[in-house]
Amino acid sequence: MKNTNNFVGRNLYDLADFSKEEIISILKTTQAMKEINLRDYKKLPTLRGKTVCTLFFENSTRTKMSFELAANRLSADVVSFSASTSSLTKGESLQDTVYTLNAMGIDLYIIRHSCPGTPQLVNKYSGKPVLNAGDGRHAHPTQALLDIFSIWEKRGTLEGLKIAIVGDIAHSRVVRSNLIGMKKLGASVTVCAPKTLMPSKMEEVYGCTVDYDLKSALKDADVIMGLRMQLERQSEGLFPSLEEYTKRYVLSKETIKFAKKDALIMHPGPMNRGIEILPEIADSNQSIIIEQVANGVAVRMALIYLTLGGKI
Predict the structure, then answer these.
(1) Secondary structure class of 295 (helix, strand, coil)
(2) What is the Cα–Cα distance from 64 to 58, expressed in whole angstroms?
(3) Cα–Cα nearest to 127, from 87, 98, 96
(4) Whether the predicted model's global pTM rises above the 0.85 cut
(5) According to the model, what pLDDT value does residue 281 have?
(6) What are the extents of the domains in the chain?
(7) What is the assigned CATH class of domain 141-292?
(8) pLDDT tens column, 215-261
(9) Which pLDDT score, from 0 to 100, does residue 310 have?
(10) Mind giving me the DSSP string for 12-30?
(11) How many Cα atoms are found within 13 Å in the side-chain-facing hemisphere of 298?
């Protein structure tokens, strides 16, 4: 694989900063990385001597582990930062934390933080490229890329596909990044949720269709993506009860009948089984939820490889 890309040293804050052609280039690189992950021996020497820091200020299982696994498979050294055991608990600022890490020779930062815009601050303080692993409700571009890749791999294109995204739209950084990327690749996207979980001006800002009725939203859909019901938001009284939400919006055998027979079933995880999606759907032949997890490693390998300019 020749390194002829323009990604070297580039930040990934959100997919709005990338063209359709650049997203497709990432998908093609991901495909090559996935082939490597299917080998018995999965490790490459391509980034030997490079150091990647995972800077996570929020809990994470899939994203953090897949980033660290991706960096390890490319032979980069990985420094795993934990905010709860760091000097931040003693009052150290983010700026001084980054200065300290930078002095240790970090080449790439991967950050998750509850505050939107924090990846930009890390880049400002470090002068090193940053990959956004989720910042507040703003963006989660690597999740969107793995979702898009999972569809692209199965269907060959997103052009002309109808994608229905169902769940807690209001609090989801995943859906915002997906809407940007999916629309750039030519998909038609419908978002569906109770009115209390639907932000205003979604059509105007993202060019999607808003529907509050599940059956209508799923009609003739090529792809159905469920979103996690964020149970911590229940205290906000956004809908009467989980039972009421499930009654109207759960993905089940009955509700997905309105989509195309071969519709792909997706979920970014973690799932609340029995609330936003029933096991009969999550574990069905149409589900590619587990494949999404595997594709997450390949996508993050591709991004680390492209950003650090590795050559295979």
Answers:
(1) helix
(2) 10
(3) 98
(4) yes
(5) 97
(6) 15-138+293-308, 141-292
(7) alpha beta
(8) 999 999 999 999 988 765 555 656 667 788 899 999 999 999 999 99
(9) 67
(10) BS-GGGS-HHHHHHHHHHH
(11) 26
Short-list 57, 37, 18, CA closest to 302: 37
**CA 206, chain centre distance (Å):** 17
**One fold for 15-138+293-308 and 141-292:** yes
In sequence order, what E strands does 45-120 have?
A: 51-56, 77-82, 108-113
What is the identity of the amino acid at 132?
Answer: N
Are 302 and 73 spatial neighbours (Cβ–Cβ below 8 Å)? no
The mean pLDDT values, 10 residues at a time, for the chain of 312 residues are 71 97 96 94 93 91 94 96 61 87 96 95 97 95 98 98 96 95 98 94 96 97 92 60 87 97 95 93 97 97 93 54
Residue 86: Cβ within 10 Å count: 15
Residue 192 pairs in a beta bridge with 166, 211
Q: What are phi and psi of 273, to 5 degrees?
A: -60, 135
Alpha helices in 161-288 (DSSP H): 173-184, 202-206, 214-218, 242-249, 279-282
What token pair was written down for 53? Answer: 């820091």
> What pLDDT does 312 receive?
47
Q: Which two tokens stand for residue 153?
A: 């791999």
What is d(CA 229, CA 25) in angstroms, rounded to the nearest whole number?
33
Q: Which residues pair with 211 in a beta bridge?
A: 192
Question: How far apart, in Å, are the Cα atoms of 136 and each of 14, 124, 139, 172?
Answer: 13, 19, 7, 9
Asked if residue 8 lies in contact with residue 308, where contact means CB atoms within 8 angstroms, the answer is yes
79 phi and psi angles, rounded to 5 deg: -105, 120
What pLDDT is attached to residue 3? 45
Superfamily of domain 15-138+293-308, CATH level 4: Aspartate/ornithine carbamoyltransferase (3.40.50.1370)
Nearest in space to 153 (alpha carbons), one of 31, 18, 20: 31
Spatial strand order in the sheet of 77-82: 77-82, 51-56, 108-113, 130-135
Q: By three-state DSSP, how is residue 110 classified?
A: strand
